[in-house]
């Protein structure tokens, strides 16, 4: 049974929470607990920060060095690179419980109070001074930087109403209204999107970062705060002229660069960890090739010239896409009273509205339209993953079936058994699904998903055609249609050129 925590200063003095233990600074506490964790994690072969995937050999070593060096540091990375999660994971390096003087707004140490309130309380009550306790989460304060943040928000201000009610002078410490920084005393203070802070607000951080104290409203009140300050920012904003005050940048000890997953499997692990996939209505099986296609969409989008690189493509894209894909497959199963939910490539196209909201386009992409750009990225992603499974597969027999006039429609209007019966008409189709481990004993939902993936891959490589109604046909029909469209477009362009030339001649420009 756990020993109850002391509730008075006298009881605290008799406990393990000695003055020497509480005299450690926050940065020393982080450092000591990190050293202990490093030793235990090596023996147990466990990750240093559970839940942080893909940074083991890049970001985590730099983070460890910054904490061991007792640095204030900044995480530089595009959106969706787990910057906030890393900052919040620092709380796991704090002690489980930390005592402070009950009622203190700045969470004073009972042995070394910095506020007049706590000093007066201890002088009056002595060993009977009430003690409260902070958890790890209580010691983490986070602020999103916005242009309207004021010095009073961060540091504090004089409260005239408090002064009037307590009959105190305005210069008294008891009339102070403390901001977020003093209230983060003996903890971690995080500022997200640092460049969005106005210049004068950045200047207000100088003292606390270098000398460890703040002054409120020009009064000679010095608060020697004990706080570890960490930041996050977009690299584009952080390096732009005028965004960061140079002396503040100079006071930040370490700059740590985050990044997106380096390979598909890392991305899949992150998405599987973060996406809500445990649905209660049905049994869900997500084929690995579907997870690969979803993740490949993010990888292709990050490389596409029509997508804004400065904005980045967040890891939230595959997370929300997987959730939408599962929901569409779940809806189809519920409509047909099926107990097994297996997503298909068609469900990825159904998730298009969720993908477009996660991508910022360049001018060329905006001219083509978001839906057109995203559909092309999905098609490229399907082709890439298709090649990993069927690069050596001969699909001529399937193509021949379509060339002879065969058509197949796959949509949510028919159950998996009906789609399977329609797909079984295609000669040689199911024999080609061996790389996906599809056998005659596979469930209809699983078999249909695999067969649709094969057909979508063939469509992505332009071996067959597919209409928006998800009707698969021979490639020649699509090619003739495309040729006719190209011919019509060229004819229209020639008409415009001729019309423009006639006008120029008529007006005497030639």
Question: Could you characterize what this model shows?
Answer:
- The protein is an alpha/beta fold and about 500 residues long.
- The chain folds into two domains: about 10-255, P-loop containing nucleotide triphosphate hydrolases (Rossmann fold, 3-Layer(aba) Sandwich), CATH 3.40.50; about 265-475.
- Helix content is about 45%, strand content about 10%.
- It has 24 helices and 16 strands.
- Strands 4-7-10-1-11 form a five-stranded parallel beta sheet. Strands 14-16-15 form a three-stranded antiparallel beta sheet. Strands 2-3 form a two-stranded antiparallel ribbon.
- The longest helix has about 30 residues, at about 475-505.
- The mean pLDDT is about 90.
């Amino acid at each position: 049974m756990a020993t109850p925590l002391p509730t008075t200063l006298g009881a605290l003095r008799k406990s393990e929470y000695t003055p020497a233990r509480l005299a450690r600074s926050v940065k020393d506490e982080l450092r000591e607990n990190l050293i202990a964790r490093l030793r235990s994690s090596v023996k147990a072969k466990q990750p240093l920060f559970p839940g942080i995937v893909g940074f083991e050999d890049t970001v985590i070593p730099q983070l460890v060095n910054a904490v061991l060096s007792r640095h204030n540091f900044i995480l530089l990375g595009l959106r969706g690179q787990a910057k906030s999660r890393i900052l919040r994971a620092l709380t796991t390096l704090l002690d489980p419980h930390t005592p402070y003087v009950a009622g203190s707004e700045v969470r004073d140490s009972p042995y070394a109070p910095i506020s007049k309130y706590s000093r007066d309380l201890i002088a009056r009550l002595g060993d009977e001074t009430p003690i409260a306790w902070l958890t790890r989460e209580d010691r983490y304060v986070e602020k999103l930087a916005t242009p309207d943040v004021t010095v009073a928000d961060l540091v504090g201000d004089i409260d005239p109403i408090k002064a009037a009610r307590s009959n105190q002078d305005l210069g008294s410490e008891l009339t102070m209204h403390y901001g977020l920084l003093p209230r983060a005393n003996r903890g971690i203070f995080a500022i997200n999107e640092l460049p969005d802070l106005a210049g004068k607000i950045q200047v207000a951080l100088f003292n606390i970062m270098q000398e460890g104290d703040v002054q409120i409203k020009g009064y000679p009140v010095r608060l020697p705060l004990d706080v570890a300050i960490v930041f996050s920012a977009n690299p584009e904003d952080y390096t732009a002229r005028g965004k960061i005050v140079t002396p503040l940048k100079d006071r930040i000890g370490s700059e740590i660069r985050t990044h997106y997953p380096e390979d598909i499997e890392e991305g899949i692990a992150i998405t599987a960890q973060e996406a809500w996939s445990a649905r209660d209505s049905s049994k869900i099986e997500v084929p690995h090739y579907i997870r690969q296609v979803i993740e490949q969409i993010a990888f292709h989008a990050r490389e596409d010239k029509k997508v804004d690189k400065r904005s980045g493509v967040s890891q939230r894209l595959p997370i929300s896409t997987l959730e939408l894909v599962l929901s569409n497959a779940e809806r189809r199963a519920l409509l047909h009273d099926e107990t097994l939910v297996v997503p298909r490539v068609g469900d990825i196209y159904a998730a298009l509205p969720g993908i477009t909201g996660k991508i910022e386009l360049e001018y060329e992409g905006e001219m083509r339209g978001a839906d057109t750009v995203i559909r092309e990225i999905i098609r490229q992603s399907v082709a890439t993953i298709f090649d990993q499974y069927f690069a050596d597969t001969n699909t001529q027999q399937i193509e021949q079936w379509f060339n002879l006039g065969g058509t197949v429609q796959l949509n949510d209007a028919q159950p998996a058994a009906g789609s399977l019966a329609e797909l079984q008409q295609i000669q040689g189709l199911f024999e080609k699904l061996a790389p996906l481990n599809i056998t005659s004993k596979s469930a209809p939902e699983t078999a249909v998903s695999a067969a649709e993936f094969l057909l979508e891959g063939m469509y992505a490589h332009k071996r067959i055609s597919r209409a928006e109604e998800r009707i698969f046909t021979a490639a020649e029909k699509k090619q003739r249609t495309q040729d006719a469209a190209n011919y019509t477009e060229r004819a229209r362009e020639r008409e415009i050129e001729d019309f423009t030339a006639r006008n120029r001649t008529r007006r005497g420009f030639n």
